[in-house]
Design brief:
Oligomer: single chain
Number of domains: 1
Largest sheet: none
Number of helices: 1
Length: about 35
Amino acid sequence: MKISRSAWIHVSLAIVIAVAALFLIRLHNAGGGIF
């Protein structure tokens, strides 16, 4: 199965954004008054 480079970029960006969002939510729930 061959996937185009743009598809890989979109998948990578989606994963990075999802991980960053989860990380920010965990920081927020941890009681950090940063946000």
